[in-house]
Design goal:
By secondary structure, the protein is α/β, with parallel strands linked by helices. It is 37% helix and 16% strand. The protein has helices spanning 24-37, 55-66, 86-98, 127-132, 134-143, 154-165, 226-231, 248-251, 271-275, 283-289, 303-309, 321-326, 330-349, 351-367; strands spanning 3-9, 41-46, 74-79, 102-107, 148-151, 175-177, 198-201, 219-224, 237-241, 256-259, 294-297, 312-315. Strands 2-1-3-4-5-6 form a 6-stranded parallel sheet, sandwiched between helices. Helix 2 (55-66) crosses helix 3 and helix 10 crosses helix 13 (330-349). The protein starts with a strand and ends with a helix. The relative contact order is 0.12.
């Protein structure tokens, strides 16, 4: 039995896919590195769009990609895949199973959830239109045919299960989650101190909720653009221009890292904010990789992990942020740092993703050896 992870190249340039798209490329890269540390081999494929590709050409191309697979091999694919088109993806799934291999989707994002995270009720007259939407129907089709799934959190698994049930489909029993995630970096800086402000990775003009904080609240913004200069004027904000994602952990200078998304102040409003009930934002493991305590929404998927390990603060609204930071004593912060420094090596090494990969393989090969 051999284990593989699929790598999609999107350019003829010697670069990594999605590297300039915020944290997307870094996340994909780190997951591949973790799999390779577990002994997974890489299968390379070039992402292309050829919707009317002749059947015989597509079939030959697919054999070239997957022809080395054998019975009971394991193939991990990060989801969503590039925009090959449904015919390509359907044949890809069929061909993996034709060769007798096991297919695992490692969820990075859910395309159908971009339409909204609240699904129609099962008896709603909106159900037919919802299920016929290509983004929904295609993702349902693909995810219901995989042998294993690795999601962000237990909450994401349950939400996906409820979504598939709307179409009478079942999620596989072979599901695990990688929780706090991974951010592979070398970090050797000295211990942090209280009073150095709050770090936020992202452009200030895209995080308007931060502009409602008092002018003397210390913020360090990483990923600032020209639009941010005026917004930060006469405020206690230190702007850093966008840098390579590998460099950000070394630059973080604050006492806490903020994980927050909302369309307005002070409460969490909007699709991306609600998404944090289920996903692990890339900011979360990035802060922890730099030995930095985190601040998250109390309803976020990662909030229980923060509370259980005492590695930061959970707040209900942005209005609570200044007082929550101000109320932390030096002794409390010192204990947070100690707790973070116990977790951060696991983040940098990819422990949580490694465990999720091994756990889903155990479900496939040990718990259901004939499945």
């Amino acid at each position: 039995m051999a284990n593989y992870i699929f790598h999609f190249n999107t350019s003829s340039e010697p670069s990594y896919p999605y590297w300039i798209n915020n944290a997307a490329g870094k996340c994909h890269f780190d997951r591949e590195e973790v799999a390779e540390q577990l002994g997974f081999l890489r299968i390379d494929g070039f992402a292309y769009s050829w919707l009317d590709e002749p059947d015989n050409v597509l079939s030959s191309r697919m054999d070239g990609l997957l022809g080395g697979l054998q019975r009971n091999d394991c193939l991990i694919v990060q989801w969503p895949m590039p925009a090959f088109g449904p015919r390509w993806v359907n044949l890809f799934i069929d061909r993996v199973h034709f060769f007798g291999a096991k297919l695992i989707f490692l969820i990075d994002d859910m395309a159908s959830w971009q339409m909204g995270l609240k699904f129609p009720e099962a008896s709603s007259p909106e159900i037919p239109a919802y299920l016929s939407n290509p983004a929904v129907a295609e993702e349902f089709n693909y995810l219901s045919r995989t042998d294993g799934i690795i999601v962000h959190s237990a909450a994401m698994k349950l939400h996906l299960k409820d979504q598939l049930a709307l179409a009478g489909k079942k999620i596989t029993d072979n599901v695990t989650w990688y929780g706090p995630g991974v951010n592979k970096t070398k970090y050797f800086k000295s211990r942090r101190h209280l009073g150095n402000g709050v770090d936020y990775a992202g452009a200030l003009h895209k995080a308007k909720f931060l502009q409602h904080l008092s002018a003397d609240f210390k913020l360090n913004i990483y990923g600032a653009g020209p639009k941010d200069q005026q917004l930060a004027k006469n405020r206690a904000i230190h702007l850093h221009e966008r840098v390579d994602p590998e460099a950000i952990p070394q630059m973080l200078e604050g006492s806490f890292g903020l994980v927050w998304d909302s369309d307005s102040y002070p409460d969490v409003v909007g699709r991306w904010g609600e998404y944090e009930r289920y996903n692990t934002p890339a900011k979360f493991p990035m802060y922890l990789s730099a030995n930095e305590p985190v601040i998250v929404w109390s309803q976020a998927a990662m909030a229980p992990f923060v509370r259980a390990n005492q590695i930061g603060l959970t707040i209900d609204s942005m209005a609570q942020l200044p007082d929550a930071v101000q109320s932390v004593t030096k002794d409390q912060y010192s204990q947070m740092l100690t707790n973070v420094q116990r977790i951060s090596p696991l983040i940098r090494d990819g422990f949580f993703l490694k465990k999720a990969i091994l756990d889903v393989m155990a479900k496939i090969y040990i718990n259901n050896p004939t499945g």
